[in-house]
Amino acid sequence: MEAAGGGGGAGFRASEHQHCRYNPLRDEWVLVSAHRVKRPWQGQLEKPPNEDVPRWDPKNPLCPGATRANGEVNPHYEGTFVFPNDFPALQPDAPEPDDSGHPLFRAAAARGVCKVMCFHPHSDLTLPLMSLLEIRAVIDAWAELEAELGASYPWVQIFENKGAMMGCSNPHPHCQVWASSFLPNEARLEERTQRQHHRQHGVPMLLEYAEQEAQRKERLVVENEDWLVVVPYWATWPFQTLLLPRRHVLRLQDLCDSERDSLASIMRRLLIKYDNLFQVSFPYSMGWHGAPTGPHLQEDCGHWQLHAHYYPPLLRSATVRKFMVGYEMLAQAQRDLTPEQAAERLRALPEVHYKLRPQETVCDAAQA
């Protein structure tokens, strides 16, 4: 498939004319139809996130001292807290499935461990409202868990579902960590595309991509000495971002102290901008992708580059979201504003959280 490049043909404007963009990380195309964002919206409106979350609730199973569904009582933790998921999707001792005897009915063993990690004891906080030291503690806990579980399992998936819109059932700052005996689909896909790019070009794909985006600037949201955040050229979700290190790094546990400090800083800057966009606690699903672990620790994984994906669904306001239905499910992904437009909006937002600014300033921003 041919797609319009950065310069475009005669009369082409990416913000006005539909075109397709290639995602080399997933080996797929996305349809960009920026003119569609002008259409009137009469579809479903979401309920804005609940801003009145109690700091501590004995009925919230993630709170310190609360009783979980299995009857266990959480300790009165004061920092991060990790515990086994009470309803795990993966268990370490599942039996092998039977052989169906036909190639169209294949099954394979799926074993693993699922954990929950609370970021902070206070339910009314989220990462953008936490201190840099508290976010750094989260990063250290992520790296420790990946190293611990990755010693045995080939894939460790750290992910955060933020907000009820993304299926988060308990309002408390937390994430999940699933370690599996297999490489999940997204990991297998990124393994293939990054290996192929490295074989053809001699450089890790996302390291080269980060260098290009740092030079071009048009999709850059925030940056510091060790990291940059962009709305990727091939973004599918409206305000999707990609968090990338500037140097070649395989896994979270490979980050040095200064890189972990600067990671805490750039994460908070990005997440403050997200919240400031529509002045709500911005919902998203995010996750880290790094080189496979377990038996792959002994292999050459130099084609991999550590990165984090942020997938937020909100499109026009706190109540209008992007749905992946119809054409997206049956043909290919489609987005309603260009990545450059999304990056420009995020880049222009203040880096002081709207809840921490004077009320007059917040009201003025909301009316703008």
Automatic annotation (TrEMBL):
Q: Which keywords accompany this UniProt record?
A: Carbohydrate metabolism, Galactose metabolism, Iron, Metal-binding, Nucleotidyltransferase, Transferase, Zinc
Q: Which cofactor does it need?
A: Fe cation; Zn(2+)
Pfam families reported in the protein's UniProt record: GalP_UDP_tr_C, GalP_UDP_transf
InterPro entries associated with the record: GalP_UDPtransf1, GalP_UDPtransf1_His-AS, GalP_Utransf_C, GalP_Utransf_N, HIT-like_sf
BP-aspect Gene Ontology terms = galactose catabolic process via UDP-galactose, Leloir pathway
Pathway(s) per entry = Carbohydrate metabolism; galactose metabolism
Spell out the coiled coil positions from the record.
Answer: none
In terms of SUPFAM superfamilies, this protein maps to: HIT-like
Residues annotated as domain Galactose-1-phosphate uridyl transferase N-terminal: 13-184
Give the similarity note.
Belongs to the galactose-1-phosphate uridylyltransferase type 1 family.
> Which purpose does this protein serve, as stated in its record?
Plays an important role in galactose metabolism.
User: What PANTHER family would the database entry show?
Assistant: GALACTOSE-1-PHOSPHATE URIDYLYLTRANSFERASE
Q: What is the protein's name according to its record?
A: Galactose-1-phosphate uridylyltransferase
Tell me the organism: Coturnix japonica
State the gene name recorded for this protein.
Answer: GALT
